[in-house]
Write a structure and sequence with these properties.
alpha+beta, Pnp Oxidase, Chain A, Thrombin, subunit H, 6-stranded antiparallel β-barrel, 5 helices, globular, disordered C terminus
């Protein structure tokens, strides 16, 4: 047999193997998709949604090519994508003197879906996750606008899934007492307005909305201006990302526990904790995660001070060991911890810190 025919035969075998690999991959993807939709149907059946509401979620998940459609029922960040996309389909905001009944029905249905999925409220003391979680009466500071020179104090007069109505704060509302908020006057002296809040980052008619949430943190988000009223009120859209600035520092205890890291739309990965504090955990991971990624942590072992926690990646880096192997460092901030869980974690941190101090004194 000539070399020519050997090469032709080899090429044919390679093409056949490639085709088989493609077909098997396609079959596996179809099976995964079918299983995901079965899980969606199972979960949605227990939520009390109407057929119309279920179909709206299903259409969005299909249109957005969400790998795991059931996550729109579980994860706030995925559900917020659904809300943002559905609001975008409504088009431009109509004039205030020309109400759109169809638009109002659509927004009412979104509110209904949010409530039935129990994604409409924030646990007391837990960080906010979306600008749609702001409360009526909250005092905010505005920076930016056309030309970048707008600044002023406002209060949230009304809010829905599409927009916020921000009214100028007069003397009567200067204290922010109607919402239990201490108002801008109670912000920490070092309110970070410049640099990362630069108005030069804004496009055309956007604003920074900045507020202090008592006993929590400073928050900010970029919002498009949808309309300006003659009385100085601003109708603004919601920010795509709510940024939380927290300067609090907690004691960190060196501790090694295996940990499972679950993310919306991704396979679970395994990591190891480096240290744990009341506020979060530092983790070594084989996979790099983006800053701001939301994860669900499950810590191994009966000795672990915390078993499960929702967390946000707030810092990341790389570590190369002596063998040249590279791993990723993640610092995750705990979110929505139950009061009892937080108390038990604080007690564990204090005991371990005291033990470390006693060991250091004994060795000295």
């Amino acid at each position: 047999m000539s070399l020519h025919w050997v090469l032709v035969g080899g090429a044919g075998v390679a093409a056949s193997l490639a085709a088989l690999e493609w077909w098997l991959g396609r079959r596996d993807r179809r099976r995964e998709s079918a299983a995901a939709w079965e899980e969606f149907d199972r979960r949605v059946a227990d939520q009390g949604l109407t057929p119309t509401e279920v179909e709206r979620l299903r259409r969005w998940a299909d249109r957005s090519a969400v790998k795991r459609p059931q996550e729109a029922l579980q994860f706030v960040e995925v559900f917020e994508r659904f809300i943002a996309d559905e609001v975008a389909l409504l088009g431009s905001l109509p004039p205030p003197d020309a109400p759109d009944e169809g638009r109002e029905r659509s927004l009412a249905e979104l509110r209904s879906i949010r409530r039935k999925l129990e994604l409409h409220s924030v646990q007391k003391g837990a960080p906010l996750r979306s600008s749609r979680e702001l409360e009526v009466g909250l005092s905010v500071t505005v920076r930016g606008g056309v030309g970048g020179d707008e600044r002023g104090d406002f209060r949230v007069a009304s809010i829905d899934d599409e927009k916020l109505l921000l009214e100028p704060r007069g003397e009567a509302g200067a204290s922010g007492a109607d919402s239990g908020d201490a108002g801008p006057a109670a912000m920490p002296a070092r309110t970070p307005i410049s640099g990362e809040y630069s108005v030069h980052d804004l496009t055309h008619d956007e604003i920074w909305v900045i507020f202090w949430r008592g006993l929590d943190a400073i928050y900010r988000f970029r919002a498009p201006v949808l309309r300006r009223d003659e009385d100085g009120a601003i109708v603004a859209g919601h920010g795509s990302k709510l940024i939380r600035v927290q300067n609090r520092r907690d004691k960190r205890i060196d501790a090694r526990f295996g940990v499972a890291i679950a993310r919306a739309g991704h396979d679970e990965i395994r990591g190891t904790t480096i240290n744990i504090s009341i506020g979060g955990a530092s983790i070594l991971s084989p996979v790099e995660l983006d800053k701001g990624a939301m994860v669900d942590l499950t810590v191994d072992g009966d000795a672990a001070p915390i078993r499960t926690a929702r967390a946000e990646v707030v810092r990341k880096g790389k570590i190369v060991d002596a063998d040249g192997d590279q791993r990723h460092y993640l610092h995750c901030r705990f979110l929505d911890l139950d009061v009892d869980v937080r108390a038990a974690l604080a007690s564990w941190v204090e005991r371990r810190d005291l033990r470390a101090s006693q060991t250091l004194l004994a060795s000295g």
